[in-house]
Amino acid sequence: MSDSLQPSPMASERPVLAGRSRGDRAARAIAVVGIVAALTAALFAWDARQSLRNLESKAGGRLAELGDEAAQSRASLAQAQAALKESQSRLTELEARVAEAQEGRVQLEEMYRDLSRNADDRLLSEVEQMLVLASQQLQLAGNVRGALAALQTADQRLAKAEKLAAAPLRRALGQDMDRLKALPLVDTVGIAVKIDNLVSSVDQLPLVVAETLPPTRLASRAKPLDEQPGFTRAARDFWEEMKGLVRIRELEGNDAALLAPTHAYFLRENLKLRLLSARVALLARDELSFRDDLKAAQAWLNKYFDSKAKPTAAALATLKQVSESPVSITVPDINASLAAVRTARASREKTR
Fold first, then answer.
1. Do you know which InterPro entries this protein is assigned to (predicted)?
2. Contact between residue 334 and residue 134 where contact means Cβ atoms under 8 Å apart
3. CA 159, CA 287: separation in Å to the nearest integer?
4. What are the backbone angles phi and psi of residue 305, rounded to the nearest 5°?
5. Which of 2, 68, 101, 334 sees the fewest Cβ atoms within 10 Å?
6. Which of the four CATH numbers 3.30.70, 1.20.120, 2.30.170, 3.20.20 does domain 99-184+334-350 have?
């Protein structure tokens, strides 16, 4: 029994061998794993080395590129600096030109203000001169039309000067123009023209007693001398002269003016002088002398000239029309306008 219970030596060696084989397998496995790990590590090391070499090559190429870019950047920077310096010089030049332009603009504005001021002063001076001439025309010749035209021209000139504060002056001009327009119209020029026409027609007015031979006698004297013999022609001329000593004419007035031919010439000249004297009185606005001269001219026409003749009748009608025309009127002054323009000039001189 005891012998059967004791293990045999073969049975006891089997577990030991089995344990050893398992240990060998584990060691081999570990060795394999180690080898694989070593290979893997070597592979990774080689890959890392290759990657490092690639990285180094890439880094070198990149550094070279960066060096080129840096060189280019330095060249660009140098160009930019040069351009900046040029721009700064140009900017300085432009600033100088702008300063000159500003100074020129200021000078131009000053010149423009001076010119405007001078233009306004010149306009006021011209307006004052026109008003002085208009006042002289009114006071010396009573030329209402001329004065009114001068005032209207001055008002139009002032209306175009927008920068000139001329409202008080234009108001004074308007008041003076209204007063001149309210005056009765005296056609001095028209009356003077009519008197001149009368003066030029005096030589054609027929006298009451004709200065020339009758038409029948003129016709008889105009016959050809060859148609009659010498004795008959002499007798005819003698008879014509004898008939010329006596003239029979029917006169309506009791005191007919019989004038010699030389006296007729002086009569016409004196009539012209009377008409010219009336014209001078018209221009001088001397109504009394104007009426007296026209009355004397009418009296001479009625006394010495044939009033039935058409030229004389026309002359008498013209004299009547002229004598009824107004000559002298009370002309107002334009002192208000003169005072206004002088006040405007004085105020402008004070503001300088």
1. HemX
2. yes
3. 39
4. -115, 155
5. 2
6. 1.20.120
Amino acid code (one letter) for 313: A
Token reading at 293: 């001269």
- What is the Cα–Cα distance from 131 to 333, expressed in whole angstroms? 11
How many residues would you count in the chain? 352
The rounded distance, in Å, linking the Cα atoms of 60 and 66 is: 10
CA distances from 207 to 9, 213, 308 (A): 210, 13, 10
The predicted model scores a pTM of 0.44
CB of 201 within 8 A of CB of 311?
Answer: yes
User: How does pLDDT run along the chain (352 residues), one tens digit per residue?
Assistant: 444 444 555 545 555 555 566 667 777 778 788 888 788 877 877 877 787 778 777 777 777 887 888 888 888 888 888 888 888 888 888 888 888 888 877 777 766 666 555 677 788 888 888 888 888 878 777 777 888 888 888 888 888 876 667 788 888 888 888 888 887 777 778 888 999 999 999 988 888 765 444 445 445 555 554 555 666 767 777 676 666 555 555 545 544 455 556 678 888 899 999 999 999 888 877 888 888 999 999 999 988 888 888 999 999 999 999 888 877 767 778 888 888 888 888 887 776 6
